[in-house]
UniProtKB/TrEMBL annotation:
<dbReference type="InterPro" id="IPR017588">
    <property type="entry name" value="UacT-like"/>
</dbReference>
<feature type="transmembrane region" description="Helical">
    <location>
        <begin position="174"/>
        <end position="194"/>
    </location>
</feature>
<feature type="transmembrane region" description="Helical">
    <location>
        <begin position="353"/>
        <end position="372"/>
    </location>
</feature>
<feature type="transmembrane region" description="Helical">
    <location>
        <begin position="243"/>
        <end position="263"/>
    </location>
</feature>
<feature type="transmembrane region" description="Helical">
    <location>
        <begin position="201"/>
        <end position="223"/>
    </location>
</feature>
<protein>
    <submittedName>
        <fullName>Permease</fullName>
    </submittedName>
</protein>
<comment type="similarity">
    <text>Belongs to the nucleobase:cation symporter-2 (NCS2) (TC 2.A.40) family.</text>
</comment>
<dbReference type="InterPro" id="IPR006042">
    <property type="entry name" value="Xan_ur_permease"/>
</dbReference>
<keyword id="KW-0472">Membrane</keyword>
<feature type="transmembrane region" description="Helical">
    <location>
        <begin position="384"/>
        <end position="403"/>
    </location>
</feature>
<feature type="transmembrane region" description="Helical">
    <location>
        <begin position="325"/>
        <end position="347"/>
    </location>
</feature>
<feature type="transmembrane region" description="Helical">
    <location>
        <begin position="26"/>
        <end position="48"/>
    </location>
</feature>
<dbReference type="GO" id="GO:0042907">
    <property type="term" value="F:xanthine transmembrane transporter activity"/>
</dbReference>
<keyword id="KW-1133">Transmembrane helix</keyword>
<feature type="transmembrane region" description="Helical">
    <location>
        <begin position="133"/>
        <end position="154"/>
    </location>
</feature>
<keyword id="KW-0813">Transport</keyword>
<dbReference type="GO" id="GO:0005886">
    <property type="term" value="C:plasma membrane"/>
</dbReference>
């Protein structure tokens, strides 16, 4: 073991060490990976706990694993061949939830497919586009994503997201908040009072604790788990192909931001694990894998994926940069994605349990954006870009009637919070002169 160079991506730790390390990577990202599918399924009007929602959860696990193998194993120029963990991206939730609610999952997934292909093509020019997305822009976009999602977290914690759920007498009840706060308290306790595997899986452990409390409170039905099969292969284009230019533009805009985030994660991984900068081939390969993973997932009903930053932290913490460890994690996710009963168990989780988890997760997304903005000098120019982009992006989301005369999909994009914030941040950053 002493002869193994753990800073080398090609290092192969013994299986007795590699399997627990791979499981650690899965536990750190598992909750964040399945949550976007649950939210988009709810926005599309799919029955909570129903077969269609279970299927979307399956696809989130399956194609997070597939996209991870694209990164770690690679094919030709595709893949960074670094220990980069892929998962379903929160960045797309705002746009996709709006599109799914107004035009259906067929339009949303078609947009994901086309955006994934465009994202793939970015691999050849990503280095030339980086100047458009400095920390000012990417930090703003990530902050907007977190702030947009926080009200969703509060609604889930209180017991519902749809209008009929929010109108129910039980909405906001002490029972719902007890379950949600159990998740929050246990997650924080595990994160800050423990180390290693338990600390990295803090949110997942919190969800399990909240789930147990919900079972004791009689809030969980296992009917869907009983009916679910033990094995199922994915379906090609389960919702059909339906093109909408506005939806494609919106999802592609977020894809560009996601590509820049992946570049940052690739660079952070090599810094954390090997103390060096990522090469041009590694950055291009990571972007190719990102886009290919998104496009392939969309073909089978999965949402866009991206690199997961929390897993970069595990590489830095353990000092083990072996891509083979993360390959094991990807295989584990693929196996989970082929077993509908696992998706059914996740789908049986009551909304307040999920709400407690996403309060933590969405808050962390917003905090990550704020952390990126700390790298930015708060000059008058930059403060104007931040204030105008956030004010318009979040303001239109809070007052959607302000753009009620825009045609369908354009209104959806304008009120998605993420798309207008990203567009304004990029344009203003390119147009406004630098301060003296």
């Amino acid at each position: 073991m002493s002869d193994i160079n753990y800073g080398d991506p090609n290092a192969t730790p013994p299986m007795g060490q590699a399997i627990p390390l791979g499981l650690q990577h899965v536990l750190a990202m598992f909750a964040s990976n399945v949550t976007p599918s649950i939210i988009v399924a709810g926005a599309a009007g799919l029955a909570f706990g129903g077969a269609e929602q279970v299927y979307l959860i399956q696809m989130a696990m399956l194609f997070a694993g597939v996209a991870t193998l694209f990164q770690t194993v690679g094919m030709g120029p595709i893949g960074a061949r670094l220990p980069i963990m892929q998962g379903t991206s929160f960045a797309f939730v705002g746009v996709l939830a709006g599109v799914a609610a107004t035009q259906g999952l067929s339009v949303a997934l078609t947009a994901c497919l086309i955006a994934g292909i465009i994202h793939f093509a970015l691999g050849s020019v990503i280095q030339k586009l980086r100047f458009m997305f400095p920390p000012l822009v990417t930090g703003l976009v990530i902050l907007a994503i977190g702030l947009y999602l926080i009200p969703v977290a509060i609604k889930y914690a209180a017991g519902g997201a749809a209008d009929f759920q929010m109108a129910a007498e039980s909405f906001g009840s002490l029972k719902h908040w007890t379950v949600a706060l159990t998740v929050v308290v246990v997650s924080l306790a595990c994160k800050f009072l423990t180390k290693g595997l338990i600390s990295n899986a803090a949110v997942l452990i919190g969800l399990i604790a909240g789930y147990c409390v919900a079972i004791l409170a009689g809030m969980v039905s296992f009917g869907g788990v009983t009916k679910a099969a033990w094995f199922q292969v994915p379906t090609v284009m389960p919702y059909g192909f339906e093109f909408s230019l506005g939806a494609v533009i919106g999802v592609t805009l977020v894809s560009v931001v996601s590509a820049i985030e992946t570049v940052g994660d690739a660079s952070a991984t090599t810094k954390a694990g090997a103390g060096r900068d990522a090469t041009d081939d590694e950055i291009a390969g990571a972007t190719y894998a990102d886009g290919l993973g998104t496009a392939v997932a969309a073909v089978f009903g999965g949402l866009p994926n991206t690199s997961f930053s929390q897993n970069v932290g595990i590489v830095g913490m353990t000092g083990i940069m072996s891509r083979h460890v993360v390959t094991i994690a990807g295989i584990f996710l693929i196996v989970c994605g082929l077993i509908p009963k696992i998706g059914a168990v996740i789908s049986s989780m009551p909304l307040p349990v999920l709400g407690g988890g996403v309060i933590v997760m969405f808050g962390m997304v917003a905090a990550a954006g704020m952390n990126m903005l700390t790298e930015v000098k708060m000059s008058r120019r930059n403060m104007i870009i931040i204030s105008v982009s956030l004010a318009v992006g979040l303001g239109l989301n809070l007052v959607p009637s302000a753009v009620q005369y825009l045609p369908g999909i354009w209104k959806t994009l304008a009120t998605s919070a993420v798309a207008p914030t990203a567009l304004l941040a990029v344009v203003l950053n390119l147009m406004l002169p630098q301060d003296d």
